């Protein structure tokens, strides 16, 4: 059986990614990262819960010291988490410089070490505008780099690269993914804020699918438009 390492953040996309990977009959090991983000404690707990639900191993890798000094409002000690549409200009404040370069490098080294031939990550089309290390050109080059760098052993697998969150959610609803266990919000609080870009994109996806999001939100008012809050 093909063995795969999955980046499991505890969010909606990676939960569907895990279900998708298991459907494809892979032997799975899930990896989460703690890198000093404000929402890390909540998302890591969610990732563990999702992995437990699917009865697959989950390992948390602590990069908080390694990524100390990185500049992003997503990180503890830095600026506020911006509120608004997920494609608004201010969402660039949530970019963590080089995050996927670092994560994919570690995941590929780990895959090579444990006899896995695939690294799966849940990047999707909604990430492309803001996050440069989620774009197709980056994924193509990074995939080639890790394949060559692991002596043609480890491939990068990104089934949602050109799929939006609404379609990922539709697939997850079909597979009965336990969305009540997932965590998407960027804020440093237990209850999802409902206003950050991540919450807005998730709430929009549920609306587009005419589905009820099983998690609670602090703000449940109208979604923000792209131009302004
Ligand atoms: Zn939020």
**Regions with pLDDT < 50 over 5+ consecutive residues?**
none
**Helix residue percentage:** 25-40%
Bound molecules: zinc ion
Tally of individual helices: 6
What overall geometry do the principal axes of the alpha carbons give?
Answer: globular
Report on the biggest sheet.
5 strands, parallel
Q: Strand sequence of the main sheet, in spatial order?
A: 3-2-1-4-5
Fraction of residues in β-strands: 5-15%
- Mean pLDDT, to the nearest integer, reads 96
End-to-end gap: 48 Å
- By helix and strand content, what is the structural category? alpha/beta
Count the beta strands.
5
Radius of gyration: 17 Å
Output the helix-strand order.
EHEHEHEHEHH
Please give a structural write-up.
The chain is α/β, with parallel strands linked by helices and about 230 residues long. The chain is built from six helices and five strands. Strands 3-2-1-4-5 form a five-stranded parallel beta sheet, sandwiched between helices. The radius of gyration is 17 Å and the shape is globular. The termini are far apart. The model has no long low-confidence stretch (mean pLDDT about 95). Zinc ion binds near residues 187 and 193.
TL;DR of this structure?
By secondary structure, this protein is an alpha/beta fold. The protein contains 6 helices and 5 strands, in the order E-H-E-H-E-H-E-H-E-H-H. The chain binds zinc ion.
Features:
single chain; 229 residues; alpha/beta; 5-stranded parallel sheet; 6 helices; 34% helix; binds zinc ion
């Amino acid at each position: 059986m093909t063995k795969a390492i999955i980046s499991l953040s505890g969010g909606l996309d990676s939960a569907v990614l895990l279900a998708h990977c298991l459907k494809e009959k892979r032997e799975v090991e899930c990896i989460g990262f703690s890198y000093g983000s404000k929402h890390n404690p909540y998302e890591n707990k969610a990732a563990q819960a999702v992995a437990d639900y699917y009865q697959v191993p989950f390992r948390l890798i602590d990069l908080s010291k390694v990524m100390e000094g990185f500049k992003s409002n997503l990180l503890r000690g830095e600026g506020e988490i911006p509120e608004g549409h997920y494609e608004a200009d201010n969402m660039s404040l949530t970019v963590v410089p080089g995050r996927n370069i670092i994560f994919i490098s570690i995941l590929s080294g780990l895959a090579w070490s444990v006899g896995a031939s695939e690294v799966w990550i849940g990047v999707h089309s909604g990430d492309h505008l803001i996050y440069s290390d989620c774009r197709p050109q980056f994924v193509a080059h990074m995939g080639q780099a890790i394949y060559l760098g692991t002596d043609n052993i480890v491939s990068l697998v990104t089934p949602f690269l050109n799929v939006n969150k609404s379609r990922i959610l539709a697939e997850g609803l079909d597979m009965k993914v336990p969305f009540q266990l997932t965590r998407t919000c960027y804020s440093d609080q237990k209850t999802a804020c409902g206003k950050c870009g991540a919450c807005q994109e998730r709430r929009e996806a549920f609306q587009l699918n005419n589905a009820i999001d099983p998690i609670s939100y602090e703000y449940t008012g109208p979604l923000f438009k792209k131009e302004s809050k």
